[in-house]
Design a protein that fits this description.
The protein has about 675 residues and is α+β, with helices and mostly antiparallel strands. It has three domains: about 55-225, Penicillin-binding protein 2a (Domain 2) (Alpha-Beta Complex), CATH 3.90.1310; about 320-595, DD-peptidase/beta-lactamase superfamily (Beta-lactamase, 3-Layer(aba) Sandwich); about 600-665, Trypsin Inhibitor V, Chain A (2-Layer Sandwich), CATH 3.30.10. About 35% of the residues lie in helices and about 20% in strands. The chain has 20 helices and 26 strands. The strands form eight sheets. Strands 2, 3, 4, 5, 8, 16 and 17 form a seven-stranded mixed β-sheet that branches. A five-stranded antiparallel β-sheet has the order 10-9-21-20-19, sandwiched between helices. The longest helix is centred in the first third of the chain and has 34 residues, at about 1-35. The relative contact order is 0.09. Mean pLDDT is about 85; it is low at about 45-50 and about 595-600.
Length: about 675
């Protein structure tokens, strides 16, 4: 008996000992939960008990430089969600059927969401108010008071579809900018989301009688671009014509920049795409095979067309780069008289470090030349010789001054940098090829920016695409700073180079860029697109008007394979002339060669939207203008019902003054 009693006491002691440790463990656990996890668990409980429905803000509007033409805008649409726990069991099938019918959805998938044990399910996003109103009417007629939510949302819309597509970019379904300006200025444009908050239990049922708490969304800020819609439209029109007519297999691009302040007036890449359908096939050829194409191949094609070649792709600039060599040589005093005959001599080639480098016209050498004649003839030996006299160190110092060894800093995503051989690795042959524009690569925007420094009298200016930000709440306007990067060359040097550029267009390789009545300067270029590819890049860089430059224009065409060949003077220069012939009158640039041309009467563009094409043609003909219909060729024009086809858009817009004989571009 005694042994049994002792055993019982021992068991009791052990039990108490174990219970003590359990209590201590529970207290420690409780303290850990309360002190260390308290905030996290409290937040989780709040999230579980609070049902938030997001209210998307209106994304800021994007305007062209006039502040009148809307390039991107957010329209009001609506999003429909359900709280399955708040829909009566007997009503679930009826609700699912109504949602499926109104929004043309799969009934079984909708029913699955309506029956799901969750607090909230999205049925459809970004639907027109007309369809949402049908649902509102159905809800009212069927006495459904809870469980279906219709909230305001926004949808991005691009009124001009393809125009400036690689500049503007597009947004995703979540209203986030994915490319171009939309991505670069996403923080300015996107605004701040609002919310509708309601306390619920685990099933989504309401707790208490607090009702809904509405937190307003804050709309995004508006942007005013430097892009002028009319100039952009003119540029895109002639770029497309050039790429099609010259069979440019790899497309092309054009940059038009105001050299005085760095404003990009137009920047176009061909082919372009429809901003309202960024994931769709963008050419007739692709549309035929799109449905059978692998997703990887689709993605490759889409990424190629989204790419802004003017800032993201590098190329050998060819003879246009001789402008940089000429500027450095004059600035360093290697040439004091640009018209001194016999200062240079072309024998068809020049030997550098044992390597003979030919002139493009080696079969019929240019002979005795001045620097002006050397630039007019685009003679390689002249500029190779100047490069040798400058030397590697001095030449690279000018590359740095012209900001050709770094990105321009243009406010667009995806800008690439130039590809030059490192200075310490550049020998005589490398310097020779650089001096006439080959065996290195730069972007079109870098070259246009460098030539802008020559055009404005010698100052390097950073290009910009946005000139103003408008606060959506206050209307306050904030100007984007014009950034100057210092003097590159003197005004005297710049004037001499501009004078030679004028001669290139007047009598040299750029004569196809002439525009009667205007003093235009320029330089043509032709280069190989890679080594032994049998592909070429042809280009023309123009400045106008020479007496007070307002536009630097760079036309770059990739691998022209048409009957016109691939030389810059024959292929790219005419495109520059066509563009200048329309944008200079539009910019109201004074004519500098009035004795060469008869005065052309200006007319004010009338409003032709909302009327038939036939009626518009009559109105325009009476005032001396022509009509150009987007997407219509001579072959299919006969099938177009002009009498009953109504015009939706026109460029230029009403009130713009242009010369008689110019075209008004329309869409229907």
């Amino acid at each position: 008996m005694r042994t049994i009693k002792l055993s019982s006491k021992k068991k009791m002691r052990n039990t108490l000992f174990i219970a003590f440790f359990i209590i201590i463990g529970l207290l420690i656990r409780l303290g850990y939960i309360q002190l260390w996890q308290g905030k996290e668990l409290s937040s989780m409980a709040y999230q579980q008990q609070t049902l938030d429905r997001t209210i998307n803000p209106k994304r800021g509007t994007i305007f062209d430089s006039t502040g009148k033409n809307v390039l991107a805008v957010s329209s009001t649409v609506e999003t429909v969600t359900v709280n399955p726990g708040n829909i009566a069991k007997d009503d679930k099938e009826k609700v699912a059927r109504a949602l499926a019918d109104i929004f043309e959805l799969d009934y079984e998938k909708v029913l699955k969401k309506v029956k799901k044990r969750s607090s909230i399910e999205t049925i459809v996003q970004k639907v027109d108010k007309e369809k949402a109103d049908k649902l509102r009417l159905w809800i009212k007629e069927n006495g459904i008071t809870t469980g279906i939510n219709i909230d305001e949302d926004t949808k991005r819309y691009y009124p001009y579809s393809n125009i400036a597509s690689q500049i503007i970019g597009f947004c995703g379904s979540d209203n986030q900018g994915l490319d171009g300006i939309e991505a670069k200025y996403d923080n300015e444009l996107k605004g701040t989301k609002g919310a509708i908050q309601r306390h619920t239990d685990a099933k989504g049922g309401e707790i208490g009688e607090e009702g809904e708490n509405y937190v307003s969304a804050v709309d995004g800020n508006d942007l005013v671009l430097t892009i002028d819609l009319t100039i952009q439209s003119i540029v895109e029109k002639y770029l497309e014509e050039a790429c099609v007519d010259n069979v440019c297999t790899d497309g092309g691009n054009v940059v038009a920049i105001n050299p005085q302040n760095g404003d990009i007036l137009a920047m176009a890449t061909y082919p372009s795409y429809n901003l309202n359908e960024p994931y769709s096939a963008y050419t007739d050829e692709l549309k035929e095979v799109w449905d059978n194409m692998e997703q990887q191949e689709k993605t490759k094609n889409l990424q190629a067309v989204w790419r802004n070649k003017a800032i993201a792709d590098t190329y050998e600039p060819g003879s246009v780069f001789k402008l940089i060599t000429a500027s450095a040589s004059i600035e360093e005093g290697l040439v004091t008289d640009i018209d001194k005959e016999g200062q240079f001599s072309c024998t068809g080639g020049i030997e550098v470090a044992g390597v003979r480098i030919k002139c493009w016209r080696y079969y019929r050498p240019h002979g005795s030349e001045s620097l002006r004649m050397g630039l007019m003839n685009s003679c390689n030996p002249v500029f190779i010789g100047l490069g040798q006299k400058l030397g590697v160190q001095k030449y690279y110092s000018y590359l740095n001054k012209f900001r050709l060894l770094q990105k321009t800093g243009v406010d667009l995503p995806g800008e690439a940098n130039s590809i030059f051989l490192a200075e310490e690795k550049a020998g005589p042959v490398e310097l020779a090829t650089i001096s006439f524009g080959q065996r290195f690569e730069i972007t079109p925007i870098q070259l246009a920016t460098a030539v802008s420094a020559i055009a404005n009298g010698g100052t390097s200016i950073q290009p910009r695409i946005v000139k103003q930000i408008i606060n959506s709440q206050t209307g306050e306007k904030q100007d984007v700073e014009v950034k100057k990067n210092g003097e590159v060359i003197s005004k005297d040097t710049a004037e001499k180079v501009l004078s030679m550029m004028e001669s290139v267009v007047a009598e040299g390789t750029g004569k196809n860029a002439k525009v009667a009545g205007y003093r235009i300067g320029g330089k043509t270029g032709t280069s190989e697109d890679g080594v032994n590819t049998n592909k070429y890049v042809t280009s023309f860089c123009g400045v106008a008007p020479i007496e007070n430059p307002q536009v630097v224009l760079l036309v770059t065409l990739y691998n022209p394979t048409g009957e016109g060949g691939h030389q810059g003077g024959g292929v790219a220069a005419p495109v520059g002339g066509q563009i200048f012939s329309e944008i200079l009158p539009y910019l109201q640039v004074n004519q500098g060669n009035t004795e060469e041309v008869e005065v052309v009467e200006e007319v004010s563009v009338p409003n032709i939207t909302g009327i038939s094409i036939k009626e518009a043609e009559k109105i325009l003909k009476e005032i001396g203008l022509e009509l150009s219909i987007e997407g219509v060729t001579e072959e299919n024009e006969e099938t177009l019902d002009k009498e009953n086809t109504i015009i939706n858009k026109q460029i230029p817009t009403e009130g713009i003054k242009i010369n008689k004989g110019n075209k008004i571009f329309i869409e229907y």
